[in-house]
Amino acid sequence: MTLLIISPDYASHLLPLATLGTAWRDAGERVIVATGPATADIVASFGFERMHLQLGKGSNPGVIRAEEQPKGEDDALRGFFDATRRGMVETLAFQAEARLSDLMWEPVRAAREVQAIVAELRPDAIIVDHLAFSARLALVAGRIPHADVVLGHPSALPVGDEVYGYPPAWPAAFTPEQSELDALRALCDRVSDSFTAEWNAALLELDPAATPSRSAFEERGDLLLLNYPAELATPQRSALLGEHVYLGSAVREEPVDDEVREWLAADDAPYVYVSFGSFLSVRGDVQARVIRALADAGVRAAVAIGSAPRAELGELPEGWLVREFLPQVTLLGRAAAAVTHGGNNSVTEAMTQGVPLVVLPFSTDQFAGAAALEAAGYAVALPPNTATHDELRAAIEAMLALDGDARERLTALGRSLREEPGRERAHSALRARPGR
């Protein structure tokens, strides 16, 4: 059997998709990843083959920096970072405007390349990133069965009266003005209409007999796989998804890191893991406030600073583990709590280890994800731009002291996710489909 994985050239997307593929690899089957060159080393580290496929202008092998992006993409990235400093609604509006050009880059060219890869390989199963719209366009136009993987919060696939880019829920501490929300909703509706027109134009060029889409953001594959715990989803929303499987999480295996192993062995005191991911680690000002709050709380930390200038972080307490990149899965395995931007990998990997969170969401589906964690009692969510030192410290201490029913449920959730990993759920779901 041959599995084809289609991923944008971004580590944060490829890592969970490649982890799903390990179930096929371990069964002795062939796994091929179609992606760009920036993540070639990641593909190789999993023991997979790679075929070249460029789905976007930008790339990210692990930590993204604007100056390393192609001309035009660098300015777009700086614009996004600037928007996060102005506020949450401004960030969402910036992202909505950007979707008019960045979610389907050269869609017909990319789609035809995808179709050529499929024709050459004739894979038995295809797994594709939900946000790889040009690739999914190719599969829809070619009537090629595939599994569509939503790597973010489930609201990345809008249902009912939702619209892509407009959070269906906000954490309690986030109180945007209604006028701002109305303007954001109107913008997201316009973007959805424009994006659907772009999708349909490309679809009809690829297949003149195709039926145009009512809403391109609501398009989905034959099988929907959600890299998210069902326990955090609402039954009412899940009922609108059609055929789907909640994978829970796609937690990757990491190579042994001698420095990390020695740090863990040197002191068994509780610690907090801190990471703002490959993009938002650039917000060194927010990281600096978190670091001061942790230091004043008297708890040690492991901090993945990413692209943040180290000088911006201030004085770092002795005995902390601080590096540009850290093995997140390894450190979450023993962390007492974590501070995160609320990205899907961070959230699902923390839930798998039963680690409570302080979430400082900046953009996209991070708000809805933070709201779900907060409602379950597994997190405290705060606005990253305005959270004070005292609020951060109180949130960290609350999560370190989490007990009672919330602690019991979080522990049970982690146990469930570890006992039935997402890769096994995905493998079983695709194997169960007719013709497999």
Characterise this structure.
This is Glycosyltransferase family 1 protein. GO terms for molecular function: UDP-glycosyltransferase activity. Belongs to the UDP-glycosyltransferase family. Keywords: Glycosyltransferase, Transferase. The longest helix has 29 residues. This protein has two domains: 231 residues, 3-Layer(aba) Sandwich (Rossmann fold), CATH 3.40.50.2000; 145 residues, Rossmann fold (3-Layer(aba) Sandwich). Helix 6 links the parallel strand 4 and strand 5. It is globular and about 65 Å long. With 436 residues, it is an alpha/beta fold. Helix content is 45%, strand content 12%. The termini are close together. The model has no long low-confidence stretch (mean pLDDT 93). Helix 3 packs antiparallel against helix 4, helix 4 runs parallel beside helix 7 and helix 5 packs across helix 7. It contains 17 helices and 13 strands. It has a seven-stranded parallel β-sheet with strand order 3-2-1-4-5-6-7, with helices on both faces. The chain has a six-stranded parallel β-sheet with strand order 10-9-8-11-12-13, with helices on both faces.
